[in-house]
Structures are given as C-alpha cells and as structure tokens.
Amino acid sequence: RRTTIAFVLAACALLTSVPSADAAPNRTPGLNEIFNGYVLGTFTDGRVASPQEIFTPLVSNDPFFREPRLRGDEAPGKIVKARRVAVQFTGFRPGNLDAYQLMYVTRGLNGEAEISTGILMVPVDGRSDATRPVIGYQFANDSVGAYCHPSTMWTGKDPMDGASWSALGPLAMMFGKGYAVMVSDVGNNADPRPHGVFAGKFGANALLDGLRAALAHRPAKLSARAPISMFGIAGGGVGAAFAAERAADYAPELNIKGTVLEGMAVDQRNFIRTSSGSIGSGFAFATLLGLEPRYPEMKIDEKLSPAGKALADVFRTQCQTPAYFATPFLPLQALFKNGQHP
Q1: Cβ atoms of 233 and 139 closer than 8 Å
Q2: Torsions phi, psi for 252 (to 5 deg)
Q3: What are residue 98's DSSP bridge partners?
Q4: β-bridge pairing 97-107 and 113-123
Q5: What is the pLDDT of residue 327?
Q6: Average pLDDT score over residue span 315-342
C-alpha cells in the first residue's frame, strides 16, 4: 500500500502555474521535492487504518455537519464548530500531520451569512506553528453532490475522487516546506442540496473566510499575521482568482503575499462550448449544474429534454468520480430541448 501511495505521489508531481513576464520558466518538480524528508516520515511513522476505521466513514452520516441556526450577524470566518480529525487516504493514515475540520461562517453573493466547512492540515515537523506560512488551497473540486468535498476526501470517504489525487504532489511540497494548508469545501460538505462549486465569487468568500477560521482556531496555534498564499486549480482556480481580486476589500487583515492559479476555466461559456462532445463533456454539463445553485435564474430544468433532466438529477447528487466520466463525447445539445446548445 505504501508503494502504491508513493507511486501516486510521483504521478501527481506536476505542478504548473501562470508565470509573470519576469518569472522563471515553469518546470516539473524533481522526485526529491515530492519525496522530501517530511513526506518519507509520514510513510514510516504512519499506519494502515483498521477495517473499522476504513469502513466507518464510507457509510456514516456524520452529525458534525448538521448546521446550527445562524442569527445572520455573525462575523465572516467565525468558527461555528471544530474538531480534530485523523487524515486518512486510500486506507492509510500518514504520520506527523495534525488536522482539524472547521465549520465557519461565510457570505453568499448578496452578503447573507452562510455556513461552509473545510479541513486544516498542519505538518508536525518540529517547527513552531506560530511561524508557519499558510496556504489557502482551493481544489479542482467539481462535485455537485454532498460528501464529495475536501473534508470527506481526507478523512477516508470518497477515496477515488480525482481532486484529492491531483492534490497529492502539491500537498507533499507544501508540507515539506512546513506550510499549514486550509482547504475549503466551498459550502457545507454534507449539504444535500446541489453545491455551487463553480461559482467563483462564492468560492472566493469561502476561501478567504476559511483562512480567517484557520488563523482563529486556537489549537492550531497559527499566527494571525502569518504570511499567506492562495493556490487554486481548475474551478478552484476561479475561486482563488476571485479571492485574490476581492481580498483587499473583503479580508484586508489577511497577510496575503501571492496567488498561484493552475488550469483555470476563465470563461465558462467558452469552456462549455469547447468541451461539449469531448471526453470531458460530463464536466461541462456539471459546470452548469454547479453554477445554478448560486444563480437560480438559470432555470436549467426548464431548458432540458427528458433525458437531460434525468442526467441532471443524477449529477446533482454525485461526486465527480466516476459520475462525470460516464458521458464522454456526448454533444451537450442532445440534452436540451430542440437541440439548443447550452
């Protein structure tokens, strides 16, 4: 199992960014940067989970995610619930890694108080936690369904999600440098309603308020003035980009030093147009379904054919893997009334 995890880390090592004109050229990190001393220690000091530890998260309806009623005047980033958790991935529990699930207040597109959850992971490497830089990491989390988000991915449920596998290389390098990492679920992980994972402006709020919550969580012992960078990939790159644009006004107290964006779908219309009929057509369809929760005026169901409505109802309850891979090369206009292109 450890050999398998090591192979996956190597396969996920490619980390790219959008360089500025005077930046050094992108390069593929070397294996020594992925399998750094810290990462090797997580293997040697970790353990395979027990059968009960593996089985329980796969079937549980976790009461932690039940939302309390908000008054509406709570400060963004206020922690509503918090608990220490064990990181578990493909049945393995790495050593030397503290983790906390946080439920915190964020803001919707109209300024209303809402709930989001997320997971904070802090390497145990002998460094003072008060000196750690912090990364706000927004995953390539394209799942519209519940229990499909980072709080789930890193505690043993949904072990096949592509977003978590793509994060292994970047996380290995971040932890190896001693960084704490906060990953937002962009909403409540267990909310049974469709998740607005593609709505970048809401993703920005959830990311910035997740960082606020991480710095305020006393057991983590992070500094309120910790240097912060934000990293986002794919749909998470859109959220991180909006966060970079909005941070000065929305969260001016955060000590943000830089942002790295990878594989962004900057123009949703163009992404849907070019992906329709490709191997990723399911993800393009999911993009629409992941925008609608934040933009209900889209009224997608009114425009769908019966087959399209049936597929949408399934996608709204599913994790991205394997659901969205089930419709490769499907022209999306086949799902809409009168063959209208989305």
Answers
A1: yes
A2: -65, -20
A3: 122
A4: antiparallel
A5: 92
A6: 93
d(CA 48, CA 286): 34
Q: How many CB atoms lie within 10 A of CB 328?
A: 12
The helix/strand/coil state of 335 is: helix
Is 255 within 8 Å of 226 (Cβ atoms)?
yes
- Count CB-CB contacts under 10 A for residue 79: 17
pLDDT-derived band at 21 (thresholds 50, 70, 90) equals: low
Residues 171-182 have pLDDT tens digits of: 999 999 999 999
End-to-end, the C-alpha distance of the chain in Å comes to: 43
Continuous segment of H or E residues that includes residue 141:
none
- Distance between CA atoms of 191 and 147, rounded to whole angstroms? 8
The amino acid present at 204, given as its one-letter code, is: A
3-state secondary structure of 229: strand
Q: How confident is the model at residue 96 (pLDDT cuts 50, 70, 90)?
A: very high
235: alpha, beta or left, given left = phi > 0 and alpha = psi -120 to 50?
Answer: alpha
Which pLDDT value is given to residue 159?
81
**Ramachandran assignment for 213, one of left (phi > 0), alpha (psi -120 to 50 degrees), beta (any other):** alpha
Least confident of 216-225, 243-252, 321-330, 333-342: 321-330
Give yes or no for a contact between 293 and 195, defined as CB atoms under 8 angstroms apart: yes
| Cβ burial, residue 192 (10 Å; 0-12/13-18/19+) | exposed
pTM assigned to the model? 0.91
Supply 220's token pair: 């983590």
Q: Which helix (H) or strand (E) holds 134?
A: strand 134-138
Tokens of 163: 């977003």
Tell me which residue has tokens 């209303």: 112
Burial class (CB in 10 A: 0-12, 13-18, 19+), 210: buried
Between CA 272 and CA 289 the distance in angstroms is 12
Q: Which two tokens stand for residue 176?
A: 């190896």
pLDDT value of residue 11: 44
- In the chain, count H helices and then E strands: 12, 9
Among the listed residues 151, 33, 22, the one whose alpha carbon sits nearest the alpha carbon of residue 83: 151
The size of the chain, in residues, is 342
